[in-house]
Amino acid sequence: MTEPLATARTIAAKDLAVERRSRVVANQVLPFAGLVMVMFAFALDDDAIASRVAGGLVWLAALLALLVTVQRSFAVDAADGALEAIRAAGADMRGVFLGKVAALAVQLLVLEAVLVAAAIVLYRVSVRDPLLLVAVLVAATAGLAAVGCIYGGVVAGAGGRETLLPLLLMPVAAPVLIGATRATESAFASGGATPAEGWPWVGLLAAFAAVFLVAGAMSFAALVEE
Amino acid sequence: MADVVPGADLTPTRPRGVATRATRAIGALAAVLFAWVLVGGLWFTPAEKQQGESVRIMYVHVPSAWVAYLAFVVTAVASACYLLGRRRSLGFDRVAGASAEVGVLFMALALVTGSLWGHPTWGTFWVWDPRLTTTAFLFVTYVGYLAVRGTGATPEQRARRSAVLALLAVLEIPLVHFSVVLWRSLHQQASVLSPDGDVKMDGSMLTTLFVGVVAFTSLFAWLVVHRQRVQAMGDALAIRELDDAIAVRGVAG
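Output (structure tokens, whole complex):
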């Protein structure tokens, strides 16, 4: 048994090193997320509507990117039973979970920053409250990364049935979509929303993240065991 | 297989179903009560003043929704019992799975009958009411739960993973409900005519509704008991096939 936090650091460094060398998220997921933002503009076909719903589109694109990124993160581990080997080697699975969450959160934050920039350029919104926006990004990302790793672990444990992931992950992520969308609209001040309305949603997002970080750390070992 | 389950006997010389005297009694009770609800709901209860004849959907809708929620409570409790029990009895897992299967069925029935009732009553098939939205999420979540139950090489793997998943759903559903409540409260209030609250029910309607709830609950119990016995037989069969395959390999090797 190793220290959970030391394990978390090692696993996070490992996942980020895999990404640094393969550049799958940077070269494939990031362009995909940007493409989704362009496609939304085609589907909505109206500048006023696009700028009104920009917050929701950012987070919908983030959810789609989350699905692909989680799949990628666990495909590497599920191949050759690497996750099972880490478990058998006596690694603290709470640490493994937190490490994967941390690495996923870093990648998501980069993706979301690009999505916000895309919204500013494509949908003509402006950031009225940068502090609120940063708080939303951090709180929502922590929650998304936590549930992403929980259900990514379920899919990895179930023999890599990737088609299960959207079905399991989307319903759980719904509160994040609702909360982050409203709070981001407040930060953009779109649709008459004010920054003051955004902060309670940040509280909801933080509570969501705390619940699923704890639940995931407790249950990860049982979920990934093949 | 340590668990002895009635009907889990796979001996081909004694062909029999998974029924016992108790389940036959529950089944007969359900059949009689369903006949009562059918006749009472269609003929012996009056139409409602505002809704007219469409109020009769209530005798199917309300008991379906009740059974659906009951099923998910049973799944959650059975999953917790599985994880907390020292022996990790697969019996709890089979009850959890059977209950979720039946629950998904009745949840679908509740959503469909609710839409059919909503159209004449509210003028729309769907409103973004927290209760409806949470119910839809509950449905999708348990469809996912059943999909995960279908994976796993051994019953023990299936049991552990799905029990954790069921408990995660218990965390998820209140969060979904709470966030939908907040979401709606910041927008225009959905002007929902609460169907259960506004119906002025006379005695015969209440009685029929109550009989409906008992009938659906008995059907639920009957289905779950049978389903988990069939699952026990399936598990026993899978283990026997595995043993046979190992034996054949041993002979061939």
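Chain A touches chain B through 30 residues (CB under 8 Å).
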